[in-house]
Amino acid sequence: MTAAPPPLAAAPHASRAVVAQGASATGMRWAALADAGQVVALLAGMEPERTTPEARNFPALIRDADPWRREQAQNGIADLAGVMEPGMAALLAVNARGADSRPAAMALWREFVAARGAILSLLPATGSLGPRRPA
Q1: What is residue 102's three-state secondary structure?
Q2: Which of these, 9, 16, 70, 131, is most buried using a 10 Å CB contact count?
Q3: Environment class of residue 59 by beta-carbon count within 10 Å: exposed (0-12), middle (13-18) or buried (19+)?
């Protein structure tokens, strides 16, 4: 006889696994970029900004957009990740050495905000901040 697997609540990281199964790759990457942006803001000496409904709901909103908008958003997210990954690594290395990372962090923050704004501009102007749901 084999023992039954433990319930999900008992397994460590189970809730993250369930969330990850239902999340899109775009949504997970978007969330990771938002987290990285908050770290950059802190390294720049700024207060973390509040997430806007557009930014929070972006993965669901872009999923319902025209295919060309989705493709451009995915490309923009990949490009932003390509800037943020080495930028974050450099900032963390500078910070670990005890040097002042604020000027470089501020430059990366400005790049992040500009790119995020361009990606968010791909959302269709619907006036709705939530995903469309069938009736």
Answers
A1: helix
A2: 70
A3: buried
Provide the pLDDT for residue 79: 97
Cα separation, 125 vs 86, in Å, equals 33
Alpha helices in the chain (DSSP H): 14-22, 25-43, 53-56, 58-63, 67-96, 102-120
Angle at 26 between CA 23 and CA 30, to 5 degrees: 100
Q: How far, in Å, CA of 111 to CA of 125, rounded? A: 24
Q: Residue 67: which of 121, 122, 24, 120 has the closest Cα?
A: 122
Distance, in Å, from the CA atom of 61 to the CA atom of 87, rounded to the nearest integer, reads 28
- State mean pLDDT over 89-93: 95
Q: Are 26 and 59 a contacting pair, CB within 8 Å?
A: yes
Q: Which residue, among 53, 49, 45, 54, has the nearest Cα to 37 in the 3D structure?
A: 49
**d(Cα 110, Cα 4) in Å, to the nearest integer?**
52
Task: Please give the structure tokens belonging to residue 127.
Answer: 């006036």
